[in-house]
Structures
1.
Amino acid sequence: MSSQEIHILDDHSFDSPPFTAAANDPTGASNIPPEEGCGDDFQPFNLEYRDFQINPLPQQPLELFQLFVPISLVQSWVGYTEDWAFYCADNGIKDSWNTPLSDQSRLHAWEGISTATAYVWLGILIYLGIHREISLEDHWKAPSLGDQRPLHPFTKFMPLRKFELITRYFRTFDHTNLDVSDERDLPKTFQAAEEWSEHIQRVSIELYLPGTNLTVDECMVPFTGRSKETTLVKGKPTPVGFKIWVIAQQGYFLQWLWHVKRSPVTPVTVKLEVPTPYGKKGKLRTEIPLSNTQSVVVHLLKRLSTLTHHVFTDNLFSSPQLFRLLRQLGYGATGTARPNCGITTVMKQIKETGKLPNGKPLLFNKVYLIPTKDKQVWITLPVFPLLICLFSFPLGPSNRLER
């Protein structure tokens, strides 16, 4: 078989409307030149399928909740909150911006907070996120003649002014331990949530043993307050907030990393089996560095205790170089890809012109497959929609190639 031959697959599975990516996505993707040539075959990477498992759970919902928000953790929050409230009162300020404390400030009415009160406050906070009203005060308003409204039962546990006071001074971190002088590793915004974040991730993988198939993607945590770490991603359901990188299965988040604008995760490199020349002097390149965004996939997979997985990604991450590295590490991968992610010149030409290398038009409802030169990655192109996909695992029985 010629190295330029293109395999065609037709399984009539692309009859849905074309997918349109979100416009104006500010997250940068790699711009990698296409690879010359292609392989004459594909060496499949076999992974044994396994389903996920859920370890025994507590009998009571409250006990399950307290696995993620344990009493010991809440007790530390109570200590942090008390320290912060007394620090503000002793220094005559009412917030972290050193606003002077006035005689009418609510801080003068601070009566302290107990662990039980902290749980009540947290429960109300969760309730407010589920049962929406026009304003915060509306939750505490009782129905009256001519003013029909729901009566929220939590109001008998905490008055509005106390809830607002606790909300203003509640701290999940020790304000004296935030390293604001050097935020290159982790900004103070994320330092404040790191202790609880690490605990939730630890409990998550203790309760849930992931199966073979996982996905890596970016997610947004809604936040519209003042912070240098908020990200604007136009076209997303949640356009403004904190961006995190997540590895998940069945909608269950297993691990995540904070997206730090000026200090991303450490890039990783892919070792080349055959050194390739580059530059004007033709120096031999023995490894290719991945972008910081692509490296997120590797870092998240390494945080799991299970060894082998099949990870699904979108075109923000996918590239032949990343899939080669994942294969070297024992992971299979599937994902959509962009024309500038390092695919072969033949596939890039097909994507841009809509024609085969011999000038013939693309056949409707067909899938064109080209292996990379090292036979490690399949590059596929379904004609409808024109969507580039990468694979590093064998196609299933229903998707056999027609040679």
2.
Amino acid sequence: MQACFSDQINPPIDPDRPDPPRATVAVYVVANLREFNIKLNPEKCTFGVPKGKLLGYMVSEHGFEANRDKIAAITNMRPIEVLRVSRG
């Protein structure tokens, strides 16, 4: 995978050049996958989604974000109760 996407992992930064359109990037990615004979499972692949869950994390174009479901679950947890058992 490193060889397939080596030029996309750490591309040179040019502040004057605008980001390419997503369609152009998708065509480039598919061409690289074909060149390296990598096949994708269409049931697991999702393209063009602005925000979604990936491995339990919320991922968007801005990176990883806090998952509101997990935050709500933690804040709504009851305090831990300690049960004391007397030994006799």
3.
Amino acid sequence: MKRVSKRDKAFQPAELKPYSVEILFAIELIVAIVLLTFISGCGVPSDSKLREKFFHERSNFVELVRMSNEDEHVSLIMPNFTYLDTDASWPRKDIGFSEERWNEYRRMFRKLGINGGLARRTDYTPSTVFIAAYASGGVLASSDKGYVYSPRPLSPLVSSLDVFPRERYLNGKGHAIEFEQLGDGWYLYREEY
């Protein structure tokens, strides 16, 4: 007969009744769902909050687009890096403009509550400017919400961006973008990868 020390007894799992495993699984599932729901919605600004900010600071948004149009060869401007339309490597000596100009962008981003920078994307007209008020994620999955200026109409238009575009996301094989019109070439947008 093998002797079991007191220490060994302390590390032996307690015997679970059959229904205990089911209860533990249900609790784990509920916790996981609550965490995923919290994480996926955490920090995403509401449409009303973005509209209020836009109409209150409209002249500053117009100024930001004007600046970007002057620096049209810079396709992405973030607080800590830039991409040129010919070079997305980082770090690099030519950031696309002076350090003073970059600081102007950073000041505007802070003032307007922009945490995802500004982008001139190749999948839209060159004069379309995306300004991400909210950006989360990375290469495998990301979520952006913010403002767009486009001289051409954008689609698909929706009445609210507060709800995750699940159907469009699934039909788009893991990508969805939707727009809510603000007027005069301005839109709110939400994009999910």
4.
Amino acid sequence: MKFLAILKDSLRETLDVKLFYVLGALSVLLILFVASITYKPEPMEPRIKSFAVMVPLAIGITQDLQAKDETRGLIVQPDVKNFEQLDKDKGPWEAPFRFTLLLTLLATRDEDRGHPFGKKGGGEGPEHVETDKDRELIAEGKKRLTPDYVQRMVKQGIPFVKDVEVKPAEGEHDQAAFTVTTNGTTFKSRKEWFHTPALFFGALEVPMPVPMPLGIIIQFIGDWIVGTFGTAIIMFLSVIMTASFLPSMLNKGTVDLLLVKPIHRTSLFLYKFTGGLLFMFLNTALIMGGIWLALGLQTGIWTNSFLLCIFIYTFQFAVFYSVSALAAVFTRSPIVAILASVALWVLLFAVGWTHWWFIEKGREQKPPSETQHWAYVGYDAVHTVLPHYKDVDWLTTRLIVEELVSKIQADPADREKTNKQLDKDYGAYHWRTSLLVSGLFIVVVVGLACWRFTVRDY
């Protein structure tokens, strides 16, 4: 009952701070913003017509033609016309399609023949057919572009489509035309397909160089927009608001009333400290729970690691709040408590990144003369004893990515490839070490603050 009473006092103090309402409003706005993001599947037509498909197809066929004496000097320019989705009720990753593939054959100048792109360099490029010799060359090329050959090249150029069927079609005199029919893709579900996000329920499309798979977009929103920037802002505001909890308790008159109660000073301090953590926990639960729900309803991908982030971010906040509490019992100043927390955040951020860049990155490839240098060993030791703030950040990123990979990538080979990359990026960091070192830091700092609060004469 004593614990609940003190938590109630902490909550009342929070409600008296206007920033609490600002933080609550920001949290709700962030959730609504994420909920307003829609994810539009990219149609198949731009994927087929993309630079990444047409250029390799053109190069492959051109090289095959120029490898034969009878067709040397021909280059091919592919194009797609009359694109049609045969089943309108299915998504682009599962629907059958039909389109006309036009392969325009161009004869190059005599001095450029034999070059895979039709010219040695510079110049104005290939010219269209004008002579009978050129027409004969194109006719020979069209004979070699059989449906079976084109089917094989289409499968190589568009490897994600299934059941490719190629039939001859009518084209111009310098074109080899084919009707291509496909039946679905190798993508198992919408989660693997390419999407374009749009803000405010589709009102504002987000410009992207290329559409990305839905899982990558979810990872970006969860790990960067929410986990990095959003959480940093919420944590910073929480440090500001909770910095006044302990100093206000230590004000003359308030502390006198508390100390006459039949409760040990250590218990009193720990109750107050827990109240600050509870404040951060509830705010984080609101944000991450709301975003988990919004993304799940919008995409069908329920990323449960977002819910685990509630506890992870609260734990990270405890590192900074312990320093804030220590500064509070020594100075009774909220400003000093805030500055101490921010200074620690800057320090841990800098140490985490510099340690990864100069020490951890490529550690196994570095010579002993470098790894045994006193500066190298000393900086490694500094990182070891300080709270592993950035390590926990990177481990959280890995946690999110691993879950998304397991839910999105159906191919075991793709999952194994991604997991190997994760091992390469984050294999040097471990939950047990990071939580143990950071937890010991919290215990030591809170213990020191408890001792100071216990022995000081108020």
